[in-house]
User: Which sequence fits this backbone?
């Protein structure tokens, strides 16, 4: 059975999946894959001072701020981060708490784990741990493209992986994206990664 698109006669095929019609306008079969936006290179965070907030935001922030908490704001080429330090007497867990409120500078809903790990490293510390909470529906807050990390300084959580492993290599059935800035201990050899997977140790 012939392809009905071939019935367009003089209009010739123009590459795989595309023909030209009319005034050389491209016609694609199917839906083209969307292209990912190009992000600016990562820059160091700089502390910023926001002189004014919208009235609604200032009121809401004042009402929600725990007593004795302090807040600092930072921005780099990709993200705006508000760092709130909450003293132990106000923390429900009985420990000092650091809250990172993160949004992209273009207010997009982009959620990149590597970027968030880097934000945590640069604004809290490389050997500190933070969690992202998926809460009970009864206390869910979802009103803007903003994400939140919570850190108890000095505490390693009693769950997670036991040792470090970073790799840009892939094994059959897996997929890994390249690193913008590969760490010094990044494993690039697939055979080495396979050995580690089989033996369970580096």
Assistant:
């Amino acid at each position: 059975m012939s392809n009905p698109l071939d019935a367009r006669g003089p209009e010739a095929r123009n590459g795989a999946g595309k023909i030209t019609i009319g005034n050389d306008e491209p016609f694609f079969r199917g839906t083209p894959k969307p292209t990912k936006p190009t992000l600016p290179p990562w820059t160091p965070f700089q502390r910023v001072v926001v002189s004014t907030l919208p009235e609604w935001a200032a009121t809401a922030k004042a009402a929600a701020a725990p007593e004795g908490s302090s807040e600092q704001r930072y921005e780099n080429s990709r993200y705006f981060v508000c760092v709130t330090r909450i003293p132990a007497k106000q923390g429900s867990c009985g420990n000092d708490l650091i809250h990172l409120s993160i949004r992209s500078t273009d207010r997009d809903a982009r959620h990149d784990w590597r970027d968030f790990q880097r934000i945590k490293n640069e604004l809290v510390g490389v050997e500190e741990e933070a969690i992202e909470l998926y809460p009970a529906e009864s206390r869910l807050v979802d009103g803007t493209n903003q994400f939140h990390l919570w850190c108890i300084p000095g505490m390693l959580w009693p769950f997670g992986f036991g040792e470090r492993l970073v790799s840009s290599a892939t094994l059959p059935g897996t997929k890994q994206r390249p690193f913008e800035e590969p760490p010094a201990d990044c494993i690039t050899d697939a055979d080495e990664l396979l050995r580690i997977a089989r033996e369970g140790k580096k």
In short: Residues 39 and 153 are 31 Å apart (CA to CA). Confidence is low (pLDDT under 50) at residues 4-14. The helical segments are 55-64, 113-123, 190-199.
